[in-house]
Amino acid sequence: MAFGWIDEQAELRRRAGLVRTLRPRPADSPLLDLASNDYLGLARHEEVVAGAVRSARRWGGGATGSRLVTGTTELHTALERELAGFCGFEAALVFSSGYAANLAAVTALAPHGSLIVSDAGNHASLIDGCRLARGTTQVVAHSDPDAVRKALRTHDGPAVAVSDTVFSVDGDAAPLAEYAEACRGRGAGLVVDDAHGLGVLGDGGRGAPYAAGIAGADDVVATVTLSKSLGSQGGAVLGPARVIEHLVNTARTFIFDTGLAPASAGAALAALGLLRREPERAARAGAVARELHARLTAAGLEAVRPDAAVVSVRAPSPEGAVQWAAECRAAGLAVGCFRPPSVPDGISRLRLTARADLTEAEIERAVRVIGETRP
Ligand SMILES: Cc1ncc(COP(=O)(O)O)c(C=O)c1O
């Protein structure tokens, strides 16, 4: 039978406790949300929603074509200017998702004969970029500048190191300044994915490259998503103008993809405006994460010290993690649940996101529920 092997795989998944299911989120969910990536609480902010509505009214429901044909509006170019300026880079290029931005950056900057040095903790979209690129990938130990240095010494041609700035599973930050130095020493480029740094790290949320003093360098490229702190949807690559021009001409996920929807561009622009006016939002997200971590560890739970807004709590097993998250949900708290194969180290976790708009009472409630439901 066609696709018969699918049923065997499904059975193996079921036995291993790894079945994933979709659960539609109601618009007016009563749950306390520590599961989304809406770090600054902007997804439903009235200015962000108004930015989306205004843009859809003026430009329509979709971009109507790829960026190089009809899919570039003045909204897209304004967003690119604003993102580059805010994060401290020379230029930016907006994509329909952060995933597409990562595929573009890695594939376009790692041609045939090049070396890609990839941190072992990288997000799936960077890993897929490495898989699609023509260069050869060497995966190196997590957050280890010496390992990057050593790998770069094995190769003489073009090379690039790629890393998340804040790792999405444990919320720890990469040693960006050391990575940049290791790359510079070998004339290699550095591509960093700031999905979880933008809006949280750096002065007023300008991102991890800005915080590390490497934003705007001619050998550093950053990717961002518009779907986390900015409460919108889409992605971007930030870097030197010559790199951006190279992407416009060569990146397949730019050339062969419909441009970002006007509503998403308008929402992201409004969110950036809010971040400029209210820079304290970024610091608050970090402070909430540290408070969550302190209270969870005081309650005897094993949690990783957060460098940004992600707090990771160890669970005993994949089944234990699923059951823990379900019991939190039954008690009114939405938390993320990470387990294999999303986590290659095999360790299952609850993943909490520290929103800047959580109140003290909500933080207290979250910690109480997590403590009371632990397996
Ligand atoms: C580190 C990281 N990079 C990239 C992405 C992909 O971004 P997008 O959702 O905009 O495709 C995500 C998650 O969504 C992420 O966590």
From TrEMBL:
Record EC number: 2.3.1.47
Tree of life domain: Bacteria
Enzyme class: transferase
Gene Ontology molecular function: 8-amino-7-oxononanoate synthase activity; pyridoxal phosphate binding
Entry's Gene Ontology BP terms: biotin biosynthetic process
Protein's pathway: Cofactor biosynthesis; biotin biosynthesis
Pfam families, per the entry: Aminotran_1_2 (PF00155)
Cofactor annotation: pyridoxal 5'-phosphate
Aminotransferase class I/classII large domain residues: 31-370
Reaction(s) this enzyme catalyzes, per UniProt: 6-carboxyhexanoyl-[ACP] + L-alanine + H(+) = (8S)-8-amino-7-oxononanoate + holo-[ACP] + CO2
UniProt entry keywords in alphabetical sequence: Biotin biosynthesis, Pyridoxal phosphate, Transferase
Keyword hit for Transferase: yes
Subunit relationships: Homodimer.
Family in the record: Belongs to the class-II pyridoxal-phosphate-dependent aminotransferase family. BioF subfamily.
Protein name: 8-amino-7-oxononanoate synthase
Organism the protein comes from: Streptomyces ferrugineus
Upper lineage: Bacteria, Bacillati, Actinomycetota, Actinomycetes, Kitasatosporales
